[in-house]
């Protein structure tokens, strides 16, 4: 029996995944979670074989959850609507061993879970090629600053939130804008999100 924890912030999607996967004789859903912190807690409590998680969730993204669990026994499968090379590359760097798009047939997800549990890495080939062709130029700190800027926070609040000097925040934003080849923080956030880097 392959024991699963499912993490998805949309209740209807989470319920559908749980029901569909529970129909398989060799899959058991031992817990579900609606945000990143709950997913981490469920994995620590239930020690599942596989965590199936969305990318975008409140509290912590699926990629942040993957990074926190990296090196542990639980294998990770990302199920997302985002076919963005930046997400895939970051997922691979965080130790994710399966990446499935939500518009794929459920049989593909079931097959991915079984193969990942068996020790394989399962990633859509077209996405894998795109991930290696487009490297993410931003550092984690630039990403943190740009994410808060995209939420509309002024530099002073970004600085307070991240425990940085306001001048340091300006420098990170300026560097991100330059790397992305755009004119301002709004364009930088849009480009970074479109490419899956934010």
Automatic annotation (TrEMBL):
UniProtKB keywords: DNA-binding, Phosphoprotein
Domain of life: Bacteria
Residues of the HTH luxR-type domain: 131-196
Modification type 4-aspartylphosphate: residues: 54
Residue stretches making up the Response regulatory domain: 3-117
One Pfam entry name: Response_reg
InterPro entries xrefs: Sig_transdc_resp-reg_receiver, Tscrpt_reg_LuxR_C, WalR-like
Protein name: Response regulator transcription factor
């Amino acid at each position: 029996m392959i024991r699963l924890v499912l993490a998805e912030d949309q209740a209807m999607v989470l319920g559908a995944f749980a029901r569909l996967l529970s129909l398989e004789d060799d899959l058991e859903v031992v817990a579900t979670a609606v945000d990143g912190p709950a997913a981490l807690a469920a994995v620590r409590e239930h020690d599942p074989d596989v965590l199936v998680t969305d990318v975008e969730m409140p509290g912590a993204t699926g990629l942040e959850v993957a990074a926190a669990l990296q090196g542990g026994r639980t294998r990770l499968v990302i199920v997302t609507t985002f076919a963005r090379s930046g997400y895939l590359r970051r997922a691979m760097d965080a130790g994710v061993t399966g990446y499935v798009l939500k518009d794929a047939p459920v049989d593909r997800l079931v097959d991915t879970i079984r193969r990942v549990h068996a020790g394989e890495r399962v990633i859509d080939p077209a996405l894998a090629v795109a991930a290696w062709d487009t490297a993410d130029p931003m550092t984690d700190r630039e990403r943190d600053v740009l994410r808060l800027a995209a939420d509309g926070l002024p530099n002073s609040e970004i600085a307070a939130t991240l425990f940085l000097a306001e001048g340091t925040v300006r420098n990170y934003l300026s560097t991100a804008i330059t790397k992305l080849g755009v004119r301002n923080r709004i364009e930088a956030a849009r480009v970074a999100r479109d490419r899956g880097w934010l």
